[in-house]
Amino acid sequence: MIGIAVIVLGFILMSGGGSDDPKVFNESVFNFQRIRLAPTLVLIGFGITIYSILKNPKKAN
Questions:
Q1: pLDDT digit string (tens) for 48-58?
Q2: Minimal CB count within 10 Å: which of 13, 15, 18, 59?
Q3: Cα angle: 34, vertex 36, 37; to 5 degrees
Q4: Count of helices and strands (H, E) across the chain
Q5: Are the C-beta atoms of 17 and 28 separated by less than 8 Å?
Q6: Global pTM?
Q7: What is the pLDDT of residues 27-46, one digit of tens each?
């Protein structure tokens, strides 16, 4: 569930930044949050989810 929450947070941070007028370009599309932070969070979330699926809970000695 933590991995899914991190993925959802990444997609929320990636959303928005559009312009109401299609003829006006909005520079906020290229800020740090949408270009670096959000995709990194999504990849970390996928990594957490894959690790939790592959982890063997019976081998904890």
A1: 999 999 987 78
A2: 59
A3: 75
A4: 3, 0
A5: yes
A6: 0.78
A7: 777 888 889 999 999 999 99
